[in-house]
Amino acid sequence: MSDNSQTSTRGNWGTRVGFVLAATGSAIGLGNIWKFPYITGVYGGGAFVLVYLFCVLLIGLPLMIAELMIGRRTQKNPVGAFKALHHEKSIWQMTGWLGIASGFLILSFYSVVAGWAIAYIFKSIVGFSGTTEMIQGQFIELVTSPKSSILWHTVFMGLTIAIVIGGIKKGIERWSKILMPLLFALLLGLMIYGLAFTHGGVQALSFLFKPDFSKLTAEGILSALGHAFFTLSLGMGAMLTYGSYMKRETNLIKDAITVSFLDTLIALMAGVTIFSMVFNYNLEPAAGPGLIFQTLPVLFAQTGPWISVPFFILLSFAALTSSISLLEVVVSYFIDERKWSRMKATLILGGMIYLTGILSAVASWQVMFRGKEQGWLDVFDFVTTNYMLPIGGLLTCIFVAWVMPDKDKVEEFGSRGIMYQGLILLLRFVTPLAVFIVILHGLELLPFMEYK
Ligand code: PHE
After folding, report:
1. Whether the CB of 93 sits within 6 Å of ligand 1
2. How far is Cα 107 from Cα 327, in angstroms, rounded to an integer?
């Protein structure tokens, strides 16, 4: 059922490295550098990290292969892909719709946080100085000022829209090639600094890698799973869509392993770097979403703008290579299925996402959610990461394992060997069961468990 005639008009990755870098660019973003350290702090360190690693390996990796298989097979957007592999009226297209909704909502708040990163480029140029409290206060000032938050959100969404209008090869691929390696090098430098030249290095390592299971909660486990999806860009069709621009001859298993590995590596490096600072300066590990914006500047006050300016530029860039994949999922549906032009689809949908993002940009607009007053940013983040992505992932996994024709799978995988059998076994039983249990556990609905 593959429909390669579409390929030429939809665009393709120029090279294999181009795909790997773009997919890695999608995976590596605020999830690794902003979110991973902060939720690890909130959920108590080592045990959370272990569950997260477990989720990446056992759930994330098989699912990434599954998404790439669907995408490359059909060369279509998430909704079209499920229809193509099943039938025109298939109920499975709802999975695609759920993904589009997730992409829409995630991008709306993602852009606000990425906006803070851009704002920090400019704050870095001026430089950070004063007491730790004063440096941390700058962050509070930024997020509680609707004017600045909306301004930077506007800048970031504008950039995202501009690149997605540019299309696959010229927009996304070209930039990923240059800036991702730079980000890696800079982060490596900062990590070595944190480990070798501060007093927090050892404590950071033990915080991250010595599990203390008494600190693990039901919500922590659900968040670890949700984060594995979020950080690998899974459960919403982003990898499916990127896979759809892939050429047939590449080995998709190797690519999925490379992307997952690099993503995890960067998250752990960011974690070590940030917690070295936290422990060195006696800061609070569970500070929440402000963690990187409040800890790293304390270090940057000493190192000067030479380090901080490039850092925030690269962070903004990492966010951009992720945000374009979020927007691409939404846009690709309107281009493929509704026959809109890329320009029209990107402007209209990007505009709607931008407007929704304003809810998250205004910190004082709060709602009652799970028993407390929270900003929209936290609500959207919690619902998409912990429920929408895992449910999207669960459905995708069941579809590939039980519904997608064997022949399509084998051809994409490249063989029927032991690796293939293993993957199908995982996708049939292990992955869906694990996701299902974790979702129930997060809802505190598992029988035989005692919840407070
Ligand atoms: N993986 C990205 C990050 O870690 C976020 C993302 C989620 C991108 C879902 C695309 C799809 O920042």
Report:
1. no
2. 7
| Token pair for 246 | 């892939």
Q: CB–CB of 306/143 below 8 Å?
A: no
- Which of these, 14, 18, 27, 6, lies nearest to 71 by C-alpha position? 6
Measured CA angle at 158 (ends 155, 160), to 5 deg = 110
Q: Among 38, 322, 330, which is best to mutate for testing ligand 1, by the most ligand atoms less than 8 A from CB?
A: 322
Instruction: Please give the backbone phi and psi of residue 245, each rounded to the nearest 5 degrees, phi first.
Output: -100, 10
The atom of ligand 1 lying closest to the CA of 31 is: 4
Q: Please, is 356 exposed, middle or buried when counting C-beta atoms within 10 Å of its C-beta (0-12, 13-18, 19+)?
A: middle
Q: List domains and CATH numbers for the chain.
A: 4-442 (1.20.1740.10)
Q: Which DSSP string corresponds to 340-402?
A: --HHHHHHHHHHHHHHHHHHHH-TT-EEEETTEEEEHHHHHHHHIIIIIHHHHHHHHHHIIII
Other beta carbons within 10 angstroms of residue 404's beta carbon come to 23
Q: Which two tokens stand for residue 212?
A: 């203390």
Residue 233 has which token pair? 């860009």
- Written as one string, the DSSP assignment of 234-250 is -SSSHHHHHHHTS-TTS
What's the whole-model pTM score?
Answer: 0.92
Q: Which helix (H) or strand (E) holds 190?
A: helix 174-197
Assess contact for 280 and 272: CB atoms under 8 A: no
What is d(CA 34, CA 288) in angstroms, rounded to the nearest whole number? 10
Give the separation between CA 40 and CA 267, rounded to whole angstroms: 11
> Environment class of residue 138 by beta-carbon count within 10 Å: exposed (0-12), middle (13-18) or buried (19+)?
middle
Name the residue of 67, 98, 156, 230 to mutate for ligand 1: max ligand atoms within 8 A of Cβ. 230
Nearest-10 crossing angle of helices 305-336, 291-303: 140
Report d(CA 58, CA 257) in Å as an integer: 12
Instruction: Give the amino acid at 83.
Output: K
Residues 435-445: tens digit of each pLDDT: 998 888 878 78
pLDDT in tens, 77-130: 999 999 999 998 989 999 999 999 999 999 999 999 999 999 999 999 998 988
**Rounded Cα–Cα distance for residues 404 and 436 (Å):** 20
